[in-house]
Design goal:
259 residues, alpha+beta, Arc Repressor Mutant, subunit A, 3 domains, 4-stranded antiparallel β-sheet, two-stranded antiparallel ribbon, 12 helices, 51% helix, 15% strand
Length: 259
Amino acid sequence: MEETLPLPNEACFVYILKGEGQPLSESENIVAKPEQVILSLCGLTAGSMISKQPKGIIDSIIVHFGKDLLHQVFQGTKPELWEDLETPVTQYVVQSASKSFVKHYFDGVLQLFKNKEALTENILKLKLKEIILLLLQSENAEDIKQIIKSLFSERTFTFKELIDAHINTTSSIENLAMVTNCSISTFNRRFKEVYKTTPNAYIVDKKIEKVATLLKVSQDSISNIGYECGFSSPEHLSRAFKKKYSVSPTIYRMNFSVK
């Protein structure tokens, strides 16, 4: 039986007080805008986005928390609206415009920090519980719920389950190694054991399968479909496609367009 892997157990949320739309993560389309909340599953992700910006450009409140702390705060129970994960989380960073009640929450937090004698451990635990419940009712709530579900989940997933869940959203071996909590060398070795091929070959094969699917249903040009699926040029696509399907993308499309 294949060994299962634990889910990430650290998270972080950032509330933007001041920002002018500076890009924080181009790959995730995350920008710094006032009254926006950024929630990330890996504790360093959201905080590191802010820390890389020049000082004084962005003001924010950053809170790091993990599974152990949440279990203390909720006293071993699960928050409202919670249910266990069915599949691994694939959206690790979520940005949401604040609803009015979230804005009022952070206004209150700011007042607490201005009156530090009120910052007791019990108060901080209550405030953490409050923001978790509020975030579950925010815009992008489904993506936020997935992150919260993960932090409370006792589930584990196999190496293959994690790869299959992420392979269509990233072609980066570094990212795939990260979600399986492996070094690059360990990841490459385990990948070959499970899939009987290399990560690069498998990723290319998945891209070709996506091209083939789009050729059947899309009217877009073959070159645009190739670029959309991650091929660097029409020639690159044609070589890889012929190797798998023994015909060119053009002939493949024509075969499916014939009535």
